[in-house]
Design a protein that fits this description.
This protein is α/β, with parallel strands linked by helices and 510 residues long. The chain has 4 domains: 3-122, Tetrapyrrole methylase, N-terminal domain (Cobalt-precorrin-4 Transmethylase, domain 1, 3-Layer(aba) Sandwich), CATH 3.40.1010.10; 127-254, Tetrapyrrole methylase, C-terminal domain (Methyltransferase, Cobalt-precorrin-4 Transmethylase, Domain 2); 261-290 and 424-504, 3-Layer(aba) Sandwich (Rossmann fold); 298-412, Rossmann fold. Helix content is 32%, strand content 21%. The protein is built from 18 helices and 22 strands. Strands 3-2-6-1-7 form a 5-stranded parallel beta sheet, sandwiched between helices. α5 links the parallel β8 and β9 (173-177). α11 packs parallel to α12.
């Protein structure tokens, strides 16, 4: 490549991995975070687009079977044009860009024009798919050789570039991609060229995702099994004795929420803990944040509260977000935590207390029941007569804590640190996915998420259940006309997730 092309930009040919977003490499993430232009495929995880900067130009180039958003020539022209404009272009491809992904052709096009590019390998579904199905593609007891080929070519064509004679008689494991629609022809051709018809065989569909399912048979029976089970692409095919290992080490498909599609309506800043726990249990999570947090409009009052925080007897926090907004601003103003003085700190629950601890402050009061009413009851056991209190809160909240504390002769000032507004952005296309695909469960963690979801007027499929975190949110959902099917006994993420698992697996042992 020419050394004088740096001003023309650069194109990264990036592997997006097999589907599980946790299998995306750190280098791929770093590339996405600096992208000026993103050109991505259908098999990329939808959340990957949230890693790019807000001003990034996003171009969908998905290709599946005969449905192409862009032809290969159009994709090549696009990445060339954008790179020539001096931009950082990310060409995101499912799996690994150089394994049946035409990444080599795209790289050659860039190289021929003297444009800068880099190749960022990704984990291929040819390896990851079998692994997530409990099938090691190599195993000391079975084989130490792997043959990888494409099933996209029709083996009955005279001009096929594949040597089925060689493939059929090769030892060890055979893996092929993109061959479900040609399963009968591929298996028949392999057997005709000497492959053992009784060789164990497996297909892994939507590998490493919540939709993963596997089909096990033999080389001679697989085509009929595909037809009988209406087994569709995309799928990875594995042939060989290693398939038998699945009986012992099939780990991924045992997860209690596998196959369940769950909607999370928390703000994008808040959703990570709930989302990750559900994903770890096998769920496919659709994020439809209905609200987002913005700084309080009255910044002068907020700053006055920070300046005078040390003068109070108590600071009361009712959310981790309030803690973050307040203490981040506090440490912008003060270098020393001792500037907060001898103030006592109250937290509405363990999640809020955990956030407080991250700033190296202790919590003096946590109620037994984690909502405002529980906090009121906890303060009734304290002597707070004429104590000064700074209540750190969002602008929109139930107006019960301040009056109750004042009834106990406390002197309460309210410090509004953030506001919630309707989230109108949908960069991942999650709303349309809910409309098109439906969901098994929709979750609400607060009254405000429920109110704003109602305002979106999105249809829920008839069998979609409603889950809420804690009794207060349940009451709000009832007032909005929802029937609550799942409710956690405590307003904590752990209790909420346990309630969801129990709903789908009522007889499972904890």
């Amino acid at each position: 490549m020419n050394s004088n092309t740096s001003s023309q930009g650069i194109c990264y040919l990036v592997g997006a991995g097999p589907g599980d977003i946790g299998l995306v490499t750190l280098k791929a993430k770093a590339c996405l975070e600096k992208a000026d232009v993103l050109v991505y495929d259908a098999l990329s995880h939808p959340d990957l687009v949230t890693w790019v900067p807000e001003n990034c130009e996003i171009i969908y180039a998905g290709k599946r079977a005969d449905q192409h958003a862009l032809t290969q020539d159009q994709i090549n022209a696009t990445i060339v044009e954008k790179t020539k404009e001096g931009k950082c272009v990310i060409r995101l491809k499912g799996g690994d860009p150089m394994i049946f992904g035409r990444g080599g052709e795209e790289a050659a096009e860039l190289a021929e024009l003297g444009l800068k590019f880099e190749i960022v390998p990704g984990i291929s579904s040819s390896i990851a798919g079998p692994a997530y199905a409990g099938i090691p593609v190599t195993h000391r007891s079975h084989c130490s050789q792997l043959t990888l080929f494409t099933g996209h070519e029709d083996p009955t064509k005279e001009d096929t570039s594949l040597d089925y004679q060689q493939i059929a008689q090769a030892r060890g494991t055979k893996v092929f991609l993109m061959g479900v629609s040609r399963m009968a022809a591929i298996t028949k051709t392999l057997i005709e060229h000497g492959a053992n018809p009784d060789e164990p065989m497996a297909l892994v569909r939507w590998a490493t995702t919540n939709r993963q399912e596997s089909l096990v048979g033999t080389l001679s029976t697989m085509a009929e099994l595909v037809k009988k089970n209406n087994f569709k692409s995309p799928a990875v095919a594995v042939i060989g004795g290693v398939v038998n290992e699945r009986e012992k080490i099939n780990w991924f498909e045992q997860r209690p929420l596998l196959g369940k599609r769950i909607v999370v309506t928390r703000t994008r800043q808040q959703s990570s803990a709930l989302k990750q726990k559900l994903v770890d249990l096998g769920a496919e999570v659709i994020e439809i944040p209905t609200i987002r947090m913005v700084p309080a409009s009255d910044q002068d009052t907020f700053n006055d509260c920070i300046e005078n925080a040390y003068t109070y007897d108590w600071i009361v926090f009712t959310s981790p977000n309030g803690v973050e907004y307040f203490l981040d601003r506090f440490f912008e103003r003060f270098d020393d935590a001792r500037s907060l003085g001898g103030v006592k700190i109250a937290a509405i629950g363990p999640g809020t207390a955990k956030k407080i601890k991250q700033y190296h402050f202790a919590t003096d009061l946590i109620p037994e029941v984690y909502h405002a009413e529980g906090l009121i009851e906890a303060f009734k056991k304290e002597d707070i007569d004429h104590h000064t209190m700074l209540y750190v809160k969002p602008k929109q909240t139930r107006d019960i804590l301040t009056p109750a504390l004042r009834d106990m002769n406390a002197i309460v000032d309210e410090c509004v640190v953030y506001e919630t507004v309707a989230e109108t952005r949908d960069i991942t296309g999650a709303k349309q996915r809910l409309i098109d695909e439906g969901a098994d469960l929709i979750t609400f963690t607060s009254s405000s998420t429920a109110e704003h979801f109602k305002a979106l007027n999105l249809p829920l499929n008839d069998d979609c259940k409603v889950a809420c975190m804690g009794p207060i949110t349940s009451q709000a959902l009832g007032e909005l006309g929802y029937t609550v099917d799942v409710i956690s006994s405590e307003a904590t993420i752990n209790a909420f997730v346990e309630a969801i698992v129990d709903h789908f697996n009522p007889t499972a042992q904890n």
